[in-house]
Amino acid sequence: MNELRKDPILNRWVAILKDSKAPEHYINEYTENISPDSASDNECLLCPGNQHEAYTEIFTIKEDCESSNNHDWHTKVISMIKPVLQIEGELGRKGVGMYDKMNSIGANELIIESPYHNTQPEDLGISHMIKVISTYRHRISQLESDPRLRYTLIHKDYGKAAGEQYKHPHSHVIATPVIPKGIKEELDGAKAYYQYKERCIFCDIVNEELRTGARVIMETKNFVAFVPFAPKSPFEYWILPRRHNCAFQEISDEELEDFSFILMETIKKMGAALKNPPYNYVLHTAPNRIPRKNYWHTLGEDFHWHMEIMPQIAIKTGFEMDSEFYILTTKPEDAANYLKGA
User: What pTM, to 2 d.p., does this model score?
Assistant: First the structure.
């Protein structure tokens, strides 16, 4: 089994794989520029009909009627073939000298977002995008019931530079027995702001962005997409709901449809403006409140779920990566205007 180890200085956890790779693995990766998956749709493990005995099907949204497209599903959730975290087992948390470690218990799932090998969900129309987002909601709701799991994160990596593992449209579900350091800092920052001002910082951000309009890319009845005031990278943008709600899985059906639409449209804008760049998006939602109800009792007031979308178009320097003091080569206001007009 893989294991999780805690950095005692920064209080962050890292996963250590049991199958340690030799240096040649990394040398080949960089010198040969190997694609993560160059298979055609006839060979792709994620395409309909190409079932793999190593993965387990977890959840499927099926076609409403018999399909003429050689598939009977819209989205499918499967277990990762070589998971970093596994659902079976106990945490086994223990000390090793001054250090802490535990078993890599959690969930490591892959969401197949489309049955078509070369077609992204945003290109299949709003009805399909709604099914993808519904799949996200289902997985978070299901995994929240496991008291061993503290946080569920959904993310998408598009393009090799963004860490894409397969060419087939997909995203990831990772549920961890700890709250990742970056998420914890965001939660603590929101909590501190609420204690000082008795207002949700994300609600204040939405109101400020709508007031100025300088960084807004797109608005709908329930959501606002905008470039943040101080982003980490050029053309990064966020999507926030207008209604205060800390947990994504509590999204209403109307909001889910609206969110699917604004995500679909802004991804298309980003693709048109930046010539189909590699990107990552990450869904930030409330942690699992079941194991620590008392600790997170203010989440309903101080946190606000949202999605962060980050095109990978600029290489970060060692200074930026180590210090987290980022240097923006395009003003957020200029980035917003460019994306808005795409």
Answer: 0.91
